[in-house]
Amino acid sequence: MDKRIIKTRTSIKKAFIELVEEKSINKISVSDLAAKALVNRSTFYLHYADVASVAEDIDREIEKSISECFEGFSILDIYASTYLFFKKLTARLDENEAMKRYIIFSTNCVHVISNIKLVLVEKTTGSLLRKFPQIDAQKLTYPLTYAAGGIMDCYVNWVKSGEGTIPIEVMKDVSAITEYIISYLTNNLTS
């Protein structure tokens, strides 16, 4: 992709994130977004159809970036894998403070956290089924959804509480609980 296109799209996305901190998505107009991004409306429309398409582009970017944090996730060592996920996610969010605020604090971004939970359930289910093919995948859905919700909600609360004041090591407890849940599932669903 041409550097000018990347620069313009980055400017528009950055402007969107800044505007979302000021008002809800449905109150942001193309004119607001173009003015904040220092582009004219016709330039905006060369890149995006509307404000919602900017949000969708940002969401795809976030989901792709966060999905990469799951690389190396191993059901064989769920404790270390969960903690590693927290560390990778923290490092990824720390790379872009505006994006971090958008994901964690924006009411407009709740669906991104929900999608992260879904990815966590999918990755864990896939890992479990590769290791224990005899498990009925449907029996994993609710316990893993429960675990993924707890994992992400704890993480979001940790970030909101000011992660600098509470060391990330507190998330090791969440990792231990996750390991217990996976152990319980594998022991009870494989016998």
Give a topology summary:
Elements: H1 3-22, H2 30-37, H3 41-47, H4 51-67, H5 78-94, H6 97-105, H7 110-131, H8 138-160, H9 171-189
Description:
It is a single chain. The chain is an all-alpha fold. The chain folds into two domains: 3-48, Orthogonal Bundle (Arc Repressor Mutant, subunit A), CATH 1.10.10; 60-189, no CATH class. It has helices at 3-22, 30-37, 41-47, 51-67, 78-94, 97-105, 110-131, 138-160, 171-189. α1 crosses α6, α4 runs parallel beside α7 (110-131) and α8 runs antiparallel to α9. The longest helix is centred in the last third of the chain and has 23 residues, at 138-160. The protein is elongated, with a radius of gyration of 19 Å. The N and C termini lie far apart (53 Å).
Low-confidence stretches: none
Helical residue percent?
A: over 70%
Q: How many structural domains are formed by the residues?
A: 2
Backbone CA Rg: 19 Å
- Shape, please? elongated
Give the biggest sheet.
none
Please, how many helices?
9
The total beta strand count reads 0
- Mean pLDDT level: 85
Gap between N and C termini, in Å? Answer: 53 Å
Order of helices and strands: HHHHHHHHH
Sheet-strand content, in percent, reads: under 5%
Structural class: mainly alpha
Quickly list its features.
Arc Repressor Mutant, subunit A; 74% helix; 191 residues
